[in-house]
Amino acid sequence: MLIELHLLQNFAPSNLNRDDTGSPKDCEFGGYRRARISSQCFKRAIRTAFKDERLLPEEHLAQRTKRVVEALTERLVARGKESGQARDVVARLLDGVNLKLAKEDKTEYLLFLGEAEIAGAVEVCLNHWDALVASVIPADTTGQTRGRGGAKRTGKSAGAGEEQAAIDAFDALLNGGKAADLALFGRMIANLPGRNITAACQVAHALSTNKVSAEFDYFTAIDDRKPDDTAGADMIGTVEFNSACFYRYANVNVEQLRENLRDDQVLAYQTVEAFLRASVTAIPTGKQNSMAAQNQPSFVMAVVREHGLWSLANAFVRPVRPNVEQDLVQRSIAEFDNYWQKLVTMYGERGLRGIWLATTEPEAVTHLANARVGGMDVLIDQVLAAITDGGAA
Q: Is the dihedral of CA 152, 158, 161, 165 positive or negative?
């Protein structure tokens, strides 16, 4: 069972997602320059919404970090362990599963770990504390290679068997920890390919339905303590921005989501609902303090289907232009509506279980008029009912 989400969202002048030069991201599509917001940017905003809007409990969320040693050490110290020794024990555990550390006790790359995995690692350390401590003994003065915190690694110790048991236990709990965001977006651990998790969700880069060109805001700033008889600005600069109506597309494989959540059906339903709500409300944070582009989507359509996936980005191969009858948002909705009908005419509706849309511009919808519902709450309820009836979650 597959869920598709299609959104049209018009942003006021903004710079929500910058490139390495500070300019709004863009690309060429259909032979025209378009504004773009990366999929990674929206996924980050969605994950943040899960927590900030309390859409999911924290025990079913994950952290993406290089600071795993710091995170585990803090929890061990809170449980009464000495900080330096705790760091050594954590480093030994990570090293045991081939998660190497770089500078400043950070892992070589970002690790996406569920709260249950982090909490489980703490319990592994505590349950096998003596054996792990025995593997890192105080350094002597013979010039032997020292480990972290003034410690050196031993070879085989009397507790080597239990130490390996700790490493095996830690490796075994790296199963995603039933973290909803991790289950949706997946993870890759280069050193532990067996602990990779296939993403249940695909998120496309958001593309503007209209052609865009760069705009520049020339700004000046005055020193509040500048003498009254002194002319001129104390700071000048430019900020690049644009304004565009974005087409956003994402999909969720419900069976993959359920598998990633270890067949927890209730959590799978909760995750789908949270994803739908967060996808609508989440807005990237780039330059928001300067531009406050807090604009909600004007059109949201959800599709539940048994197979096949349709992105409708090609509805906007020719850039949308407003006219005297319809503004940019209305014209974008109309083009989406027309292209959907073209696809249905060519490929049919086999495999579709349901289509529901909510929009602030109902007059722009023609072919999909029968799919319109009263609002987001109704749309979400219909999606959940469809996947429940299908036995997918």
A: negative
